[in-house]
Write a structure and sequence with these properties.
Elements (H helix, E strand, L loop, with lengths): L19 H16 L6 E2 L8 E2 L10 E9 L3 H8 L5 H13 L5 E11 L4 H18 L2 E9 L9 E12 L14 E6 L8 H11 L6 E2 L4 E2 H5 L7 H11 L3 E6 L4 H7 L6 E6 L7 H10 L3 H5 L6 E7 L4 H10 L4 E9 L7 E2 L8 E5 L5
Parallel strand pairs: 4-5, 11-15
Antiparallel strand pairs: 1-2, 3-6, 4-6, 7-12, 7-13, 8-9, 10-12, 11-13, 14-15
Helix pairs in contact: 1-4, 3-4, 7-11
Amino acid sequence: MASAEPGSTALTYASAGVDTEAGDRAVELMKASVRRTHGPEVLGGIGGFAGMYDASFLTKYRHPLLATSTDGVGTKIGIARALDIHDTIGIDLVGMVVDDIVVSGARPLFMTDYIAVGKVVPERIAAIVSGIAKGCELAGTALVGGETAEHPGLMAPDEYDVAGAATGVVEADELLSPERVQPGDVVIALASSGLHSNGYSLVRGVLKQAGWSLEREVPELGRTIGEELLVPTRIYTADVLAAAEALGRELHAVSHVTGGGLAANLARVLPAGTSADLDRSTWTPQPIFDLLMKLGSVPLLDAEGTFNLGVGMVLVVDQAAAERALALFSDRNLPAWVLGQVSAGSAAEGAVQGTKGVDGGSVRLVGEYRA
């Protein structure tokens, strides 16, 4: 093996910007958070090359289908970095991933994460992972593995990004899908906790144009704008699974309201040839939405196609089950209300249809939001 030339400067992995010892310290700091998500199905501890999950229980399924999803949290990370608050962004990551799985009726079983950083700061990595673990606890999902990659020279020392993937399972004959939706079904909204993790490029543009700092106190919010923007995504996994168990085949479809807004995401789970008019007067969006629209002169239709405007998840249920569904969510302290009803035929002009490549139903928002 060649040795360094005389007089040359010796280069090491650490001098090139990768601190493996810092990575090891980060792992030690995150161990307790990760272990809290483990049940008896998780084999081994942290540090293995792969996370192991005992799937022998699948033999009890008649026809198990595996569901998988992967996602990140987008430019909301910029807010966390600017405020140096990193223990909530992981909750957002889990919500974006597992709640895409539960819309099929699948129970998310386990999740892995990937964190890319410019420089490993053990305490910051541990804070991020603590949020991911908290989200997994809320969803009843095991965090079985992850990777932290240091990218000096490609990312600034304070830069990072996170992504995650999860796998779930559902019985084939319990799969929620557009084929189960019928005219007359009731559309039920589940309240969001705020912006969740979508539309932050528009949010940051609005704040930049207005010259607002993240530390600005906003009376109508009761906190700073930065604190409001970091409110974690609500995780609906346990609530939707409870509804699936209680309602059985009377629960027909579920939609996670993320990028594209309420109408576009609901249209994805309605069958072609059906439509739904959603009544804006049935709810009042949280103050943050009105604030951003006024501050940035954001047109209503653009806001509705970007933000969730207070609705984070939507259920389509048999008309006979609507009251029971609302009572169930009330018992779980989750605000829910009837948005509208599914009808046969295409919606009128202005409806959203054919989003994300899905040839589904059509949805439009009607009326005015409740003051």
